[in-house]
Amino acid sequence: MATILDGRATSAAIKDDLKKKVEAMVAEGKNPPHLVAVMVGNNPASKAYVGNKIKFCGEVGFKSTLLQFETSITEAELLAEVDKLNNDPGVDGYIVQLPLPEHISEDKVIETVHPDKDVDGFHVQNVGKMVAGLPTYLPATPFGITKMMEHYGISASGKNVVVIGRSHIVGRPISILLSQSRPYGNGTVTVCHSRTQNIKEICAEADILVVAIGKANFVTADMVKEGAVVIDVGMNRVEDASRKRGYKLVGDVDYEAVEPKASYITPVPGGVGPMTIAGLMLNTYQSALNRK
Length: 292
Ligand code: GUN
Known about the structure:
Layout lengths: L2 E2 L2 H21 L6 E7 L3 H17 L2 E7 L5 H13 L5 E4 L9 H7 L11 H9 L7 H12 L8 E5 L6 H9 L8 E5 L6 H5 L4 E4 L17 E4 L3 E4 L7 E4 L4 H4 L5 E2 L6 H18 L3
Parallel strand pairs: 1-11, 2-3, 2-4, 5-6, 5-7, 7-8, 8-11
Antiparallel strand pairs: 9-10
This protein binds guanine.
């Protein structure tokens, strides 16, 4: 029986702490942290994520603003909106929810966000600082995972860590963080991806397995070592006629089969998801502390 890494409870603890800090900030006569979320189009998953971010803001006393644009917005128009946010002293941090429509370059948008307001930690300047081990905004999902590890007293030190997936948002940064000399780090990290051969054998050697590949039930029991820590970043919709909405959310790990072998495991939903939002909120609080 694995210990469940409860993202909701861990996130709630972070929420309580942030709420107190914001109250103290306001008592000193300062404005609360202000997060702006920019959304283009109507992607249902993006809407749900952004809605949760806005809800969390309300719960901890942050100010939040949702800027919603039609899919028809041009790249130049969106870049102009980003520029306005860069120059608005009332905005501490903001995110542009990805994915963006095809006619808009995500890279261009990310590089236009001012690094000081880049609470997603996606700007190349912040990525560079992360790699160099300098203080910066860590990307929300990897940051949330490290907070969860700290909460449960899990460290990668001296362990075999296997990360499946090399995305800029999750796989790449978490692989870097867990190999660095940080309280939760010092792991020996292997990154697996679509060209990896013998992925099953490599995973089966992992003491800590982080899965961020976006394929439902990709990790099966034979890929997991007895006693491994399993962190599932997947969030896949699979058809389920028995549910009112017609689908259920599952991770990248075959939870039922893997759980009995793991020492710790994240559920989906309720594992990494809430920690991602907590990571974003911690960055936004930090951005308010950094106000010039
Ligand atoms: N889309 C999926 N994950 C993220 C994230 O962490 N930030 C933003 N802005 N968009 C996303």
